[in-house]
Amino acid sequence: xxxxxxxxxxxxxxxxxxxxxxxxxxxxxxxxxxxxxxxxxxxxxxxxxxxxxxxxxxxxxxxxxxxxxxxxxxxxxxxxxxxxxxxxxxxxxxxxxxxxxxxxxxxxxxxxxxxxxxxxxxxxxxxxxxxxxxxxxxxxxxxxxxxxxxxxxxxxxxxxxxxxxxxxxxxxxxxxxxxxxxxxxxxxxxxxxxxxxxxxxxxxxxxxxxxxxxxxxxxxxxxxxxxxxxxxxxxxxxxxxxxxxxxxxxxxxxxxxxxxxxxxxxxxxxxxxxxxxxxxxxxxxxxxxxxxxxxxxxxxxxxxxxxxxxxxxxxxxxxxxxxxxxxxxxxxxxxxxxxxxxxxxxxxxxxxx
Length: 353
Known about the structure:
The chain has one domain (64-322). It is an all-alpha fold. α3 (36-59) packs across α12, α4 crosses α6 (116-128) and α8 packs antiparallel against α9. The chain has 13 helices and no strands. The protein has helices spanning 2-8, 22-31, 36-59, 64-94, 98-111, 116-128, 131-161, 169-208, 217-247, 255-283, 285-289, 293-317, 337-349. The protein starts with a helix and ends with a helix.
C-alpha cells in the first residue's frame, strides 16, 4: 500500500537554473490540446498575409513627408477646433435647442483627450459674452484654418493616389470651405439626432421602469445617453472620412472604393481615442511642458489622427479595404487607381527596346 502510494507521488521540481529533462518537455507538449500544430501554422500564415497586405500602408506612417503633412494638419486643427464648436453652439442657439448644446459639451468631454473642462468653460463664456464678435471671428478663423487643414491633406492624398497635379490655392480654398460646410452639417445633424434620441430614450426608460426605481434612473440615463451619442456620432465620423477621401484628391476617385476605407478608418478612430486616453498618463506631458501640456497633447492627438487618416487612404488606393462580398450588390469596382497610374508612368519612362 505504501509502495503504490509512493510511486504515484510526482518527482520534485528541478532546482533553480537547472534544465528540465526531455521527458518533462515532452509532457508539456502533450498537455496542449490536440491539433494545435495545424492551428498554429494557420495563425502564422494569416499573420504573415495580414502583414503583407498592411505593410506598404503602414510604411506611410514613417515617411518624412507624411509626418510633415500630419504636423501641419494637427496645428491647423487646433486653430479651427474651438471656432468650429462655437459655430455649432451658435446654430443650436438659433434653433433654440438646449439639448443640442448639452450634447456638444458631452461630445467634448468624451472625445477630447485632455482639457475638457477648460474648453467647455471657454465655450460657455464665448457663447454668452461678445457673442456677435465671437461668431464673426469664428467664421474668419475657419476660413483661414480650413486651408491649413485640407491643403496638406490634398497633397498627401494626391501622392497616395498617384495624382501628380495639385489644385491651385483658390480651388483648394473652395474645396476646403465646401468640406467644412459639409462636415459641419454632418456634425450638427448627428448632434441634433443625439439630443432627440436621448430625450426619447429617457422618456421610454421612465415609462418602462417602475416609479419605485427612481434611484436607478440617474445611472441608466447616463448609460443610455452615452450609447445614443455613440450610435449617432460614429456614422457622422465615417461619413466625414468618406467626404475627405472622395472630394479632396485632385482626380477621379470611385466612391464605392473609398467608403470601406472610411468605414474602417472611423472604427480605428474610435479605438485610437480609447487607446490614446490609456497611454496619455504614461506620456506625462505635464512634467515636461507644465502649462503648455494641453496644447502639446492636442497637437500629438491631431498628428496621430492625421496619420490614421492617411493610413486609411492608402488602404483605399491600394484596393485593400473592400466591402464584404454580400454587401457589394454587384457595384463596379476599380482596384487601385493610383497603382494603375503609377504603372502607366513607369511604362512611359522605360526606354524602348
